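FORM 7B: Structural annotation worksheet

SECTION A. Query
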Amino acid sequence: MNKAPAHPPRLIAVLPTRVRRNYRGGRELDRLAGHPAPKDSDQPENWLASTLTATNPDLPPVANEGLTLVRSGDKVTTLRELLALAPEFYLGAQHLDQLGQQLGFLAKLLDSSMRLHVQVHPTSQFAREHMNAPYGKLEVYYVLGVREGCEGYIRMGFQRSPGRERWRAIVEHQDISAMDACFDKIPVKKGDVWRVPGGLPHAIGEGVLMIEIMEPSDLVVRCEFEREGVVLPPNSRYMGRDLDFCLNVFDYQSYPSDEVIKQHRIEPKPLIAAPGWSYDQLISPQDTSCFEVFRLRASTSGALAADNRCSLYIQVEGTGNLCAGEETILLTPGSACFVAANTQLTYQPANAASELLCCKPILTQQPGEQAHE
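SECTION B. Predicted structure
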C-alpha cells in the first residue's frame, strides 16, 4: 500500500492526459506539447485537473481514462491517487469537510478541428433531483485562439426555439436543417470568457482552442448524432436514459444572440493593478457555486498569498517559474501545476508578457483577496 511521503511536495507538475471524445481535434495540443508531427485525432482534450474517469460508452475501455496524470518527485501517478495519500495536506480540512476528496471543478484544454455535435448538460439542481448526482455541468470557456481559416464561433441557447415537441421530432428524425435553423453563430475570439449554464443547448465551432473549466461531471445529452463522419453510438447520446427524460434538461426559451453575448460573455473584474502585475477575477461565486477563476498577467515577479484552498495554475502565454519555498516548477504555454492548500507562492515571469489562469474550488468561507508584494 502506498504511503504519503514524510514531506509531500506542494507543487505538483501536471502531465499530459489526453482523452478520447466523439469529435476530432487535438493538433494544437500536440503543438503545445512539442510533438514533432502534430495532427488531429480522436483525443482532442487534455484533462488538466480531473479526479473523475471519462464516460466513453461503446469505445474500448481504457483504464483510468480521464484521471489526470501528475508527477510527484520521481513518480508518476494520478491526481486522485496523490490526493488520497495526503488529503488534508493537499486539499485542506475545510475542503475535505465540504467536498470530500473530489475537486470542486474539472479543467481541460480543448482543441476542435470540427464543430462539435449539438449537446446540452443538466443543471446541478436537475442532476441532484432526478439523477442522484451531486453536480450538473456548467461550463466556462477561456478562448486561447482560433485556427487560421476558421470563423471562430459557438452555438449557445436557442435563438429560435422550436418548443419541446417540435424539438423532440427534430432530434428523433435527425432533421439537421431544422436543427441548424434554431441557432445563430455567436462569434468568439482570443481572450473571451464565456459561461455556459446547464440547460442551454450548445456546440463549439471548428478550430477553437480553449481552456474549459466546469463542474466536475461528464454528463451530456447529445442531440445531433453525426458530424463529418463521426457517428455517435446510441449509448453516447442520452446519459443512459431515454429521449423523454433528456427533453426535460433543455431550456426552451429563445435567446437572441445579442442577449446571449450580454448575459454569458463575462467581463473580467480587476482586483490588482500594479506596474508589471495585474490580477483579474474571471469567474466569481455569482457565476457558479463550484469554482472561481482568476487571471494573472505579469512582467515582474510577485507573490500570491496563501489561502485555505488548493489551486490549479495554467500557463496561457509566455513562460515563468512558479515557486513555493525551495520548490520550483517551470510553466510553459499549455502546461499546468496543481498547488496544495495553504501554499505561499511566488511567480517569476521569464517573458515581458506572461499570462496564467488560476482555478480554485469555492468553499463556504473564503479567504481574503490575493496579495502582490
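SECTION C. Observations
The longest strand covers residues 139-146. The mean pLDDT is 94.

SECTION D. Sign-off
Analyst initials: ____
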